Amino acid sequence: MGLFQYALFDGGVCIKNDEKLKPFIEFVQIKDGSFKNRETHEYFLPGKGEVPITKVLKQLDKIGYKGFISLEWEKRWHPELPDLKQALPLFSQIINA
Length: 97
Description:
Elements: H1 3-9, H2 13-16, H3 18-21, E1 27-30, E2 32-36, E3 40-44, H4 53-62, E4 68-71, H5 84-95
Parallel strand pairs: 1-4
Antiparallel strand pairs: 2-3
Protein backbone atom coordinates (compact mmCIF):
# COMPACT_ATOMS: atom_id res chain seq x y z
CA MET A 1 0.00 0.00 0.00
CA GLY A 2 1.53 3.31 -1.06
CA LEU A 3 0.19 5.83 1.43
CA PHE A 4 1.06 8.94 -0.56
CA GLN A 5 -1.07 8.11 -3.57
CA TYR A 6 -4.04 6.88 -1.53
CA ALA A 7 -4.04 9.78 0.87
CA LEU A 8 -3.61 12.60 -1.60
CA PHE A 9 -4.68 11.55 -5.06
CA ASP A 10 -7.66 9.42 -3.97
CA GLY A 11 -8.71 11.71 -1.14
CA GLY A 12 -7.87 9.32 1.69
CA VAL A 13 -9.96 6.39 0.44
CA CYS A 14 -7.62 3.92 2.13
CA ILE A 15 -8.66 5.23 5.53
CA LYS A 16 -12.33 4.59 4.82
CA ASN A 17 -11.78 1.11 3.38
CA ASP A 18 -9.23 -0.23 5.83
CA GLU A 19 -11.24 -3.33 6.83
CA LYS A 20 -11.81 -4.26 3.19
CA LEU A 21 -8.14 -3.75 2.34
CA LYS A 22 -6.74 -5.59 5.38
CA PRO A 23 -6.35 -9.00 3.69
CA PHE A 24 -4.40 -7.40 0.84
CA ILE A 25 -1.98 -5.20 2.81
CA GLU A 26 1.42 -6.90 2.91
CA PHE A 27 3.57 -3.85 3.61
CA VAL A 28 3.14 -0.08 3.88
CA GLN A 29 5.35 2.58 2.31
CA ILE A 30 5.16 6.08 3.70
CA LYS A 31 6.20 9.32 2.05
CA ASP A 32 4.84 12.79 2.64
CA GLY A 33 4.13 15.62 0.26
CA SER A 34 1.40 17.44 -1.59
CA PHE A 35 -0.27 17.47 -4.98
CA LYS A 36 -0.79 20.63 -6.98
CA ASN A 37 -3.92 20.48 -9.12
CA ARG A 38 -3.69 16.66 -8.99
CA GLU A 39 -1.07 16.87 -11.73
CA THR A 40 2.25 17.70 -10.11
CA HIS A 41 3.53 16.70 -6.70
CA GLU A 42 6.15 17.77 -4.25
CA TYR A 43 7.70 15.62 -1.52
CA PHE A 44 8.47 16.74 2.03
CA LEU A 45 10.09 15.42 5.17
CA PRO A 46 7.81 12.99 7.05
CA GLY A 47 5.11 14.90 8.93
CA LYS A 48 5.66 18.12 6.96
CA GLY A 49 3.25 17.50 4.06
CA GLU A 50 -0.47 16.82 3.63
CA VAL A 51 -0.48 13.04 4.08
CA PRO A 52 -2.39 12.07 7.27
CA ILE A 53 0.33 9.65 8.36
CA THR A 54 -0.62 9.49 12.04
CA LYS A 55 -4.29 8.93 11.21
CA VAL A 56 -3.49 6.08 8.83
CA LEU A 57 -1.07 4.47 11.29
CA LYS A 58 -3.84 4.53 13.92
CA GLN A 59 -6.21 2.86 11.47
CA LEU A 60 -3.62 0.20 10.65
CA ASP A 61 -3.20 -0.45 14.37
CA LYS A 62 -6.99 -0.62 14.78
CA ILE A 63 -7.30 -3.38 12.16
CA GLY A 64 -4.40 -5.31 13.69
CA TYR A 65 -1.82 -4.72 10.94
CA LYS A 66 1.50 -6.30 12.01
CA GLY A 67 3.49 -6.05 8.77
CA PHE A 68 6.34 -3.88 7.62
CA ILE A 69 6.18 -0.09 7.50
CA SER A 70 8.93 1.66 5.55
CA LEU A 71 9.91 5.18 4.63
CA GLU A 72 9.85 5.72 0.89
CA TRP A 73 12.61 8.28 0.30
CA GLU A 74 13.27 8.97 -3.37
CA LYS A 75 16.28 11.24 -3.20
CA ARG A 76 17.83 9.53 -6.21
CA TRP A 77 14.95 10.75 -8.38
CA HIS A 78 14.31 13.92 -6.36
CA PRO A 79 17.73 15.35 -5.46
CA GLU A 80 16.07 18.43 -3.96
CA LEU A 81 14.97 16.32 -0.97
CA PRO A 82 16.92 16.66 2.27
CA ASP A 83 19.33 13.87 3.19
CA LEU A 84 17.98 10.66 4.63
CA LYS A 85 19.76 11.58 7.88
CA GLN A 86 17.11 14.28 8.35
CA ALA A 87 14.16 12.14 7.29
CA LEU A 88 14.78 9.01 9.38
CA PRO A 89 14.54 10.63 12.84
CA LEU A 90 11.25 12.29 11.87
CA PHE A 91 9.92 9.04 10.46
CA SER A 92 10.93 7.21 13.62
CA GLN A 93 9.15 9.79 15.81
CA ILE A 94 5.96 9.43 13.80
CA ILE A 95 5.77 5.65 13.74
CA ASN A 96 6.75 5.31 17.40
CA ALA A 97 4.32 7.95 18.69
